[in-house]
Amino acid sequence: MADDMNGEDFSADDEDHLWAAYADTVVRFYFDGSIVEVAAAPWGKRGKWLFETERVHIITAYNPRSRLLSEKENEARHKALGEQLNKLDVRALSAIGTGITDPPWQEESYCAIGLDNQTAFDVAAEWEQNALFTWSRKEWEITGVLLPTWQLFGWQSAVWSS
Regarding beta strands 91-99 and 105-113, do their DSSP bridges make them parallel or antiparallel, or are they unpaired? Predict the structure, then answer.
């Protein structure tokens, strides 16, 4: 089981709740003058791929290890993550991850274009994130970083002109 910031373990129920929340996450960001929304879908379903790269990663610095931080702390972490991604020469689009679980939640994040999987994983681990979202032409993958396991889905998207 993954450790939280207090050195305690998440229970299996906690982990199940977190994975359910991640699976229900909807990510929104601006890309080339449009608003894009992407979310998990049944395996095999795919939307229209928008990028020249093979994959993009959704990374946040909010609430490390699911420990709720103040808005000020989260905003400072988000800004520092953006600076780190810029130093890695990554196109980092501001994004919002929204969960519809009970209770609903929202976290600022980045849609990082140009990271390889290992670097994305390492960045997520550095920011003490439980999971990393990877969106590719074929799938929407949620990989455990501090939590064990991973999940694969199809994906669906919507694009609106802004």
Answer: antiparallel
- At 49-72, the pLDDT tens digits run 999 999 999 999 999 999 999 999
Whole-angstrom distance, CA of residue 130 vs CA of residue 97: 14
- Please state whether the peptide bond connecting residue 103 to the residue before it is cis, i.e. omega within 30 degrees of 0: yes
Strand partners, 40: 155
pTM (global) more than 0.70: yes
pLDDT at 10: 63
HEC-encoded secondary structure of the chain: CCECCCCCECCHHHHHHHHHHHHCCEEEEEECCEEEEEEEECCCCCCCCCCCCCEEEEECCCCHHHCCCCHHHHHHHHHHHHHHHHHCCCEEEEEEEEECCCCCEEEEEEEEECCCHHHHHHHHHHCCCCEEEEEECCCEEEEECCCCCEEEEEEEEEEEEC
Would you place residue 23 in the very low, low, confident or very high pLDDT band (cuts 50, 70, 90)? very high
Q: Note the pLDDT of residue 3.
A: 38
Please choose, from the candidates 36, 101, 124, 3, the residue with its C-alpha nearest in 3D space to the C-alpha of residue 132.
124
- Rounded distance, CA 159 to CA 139, Å? 18
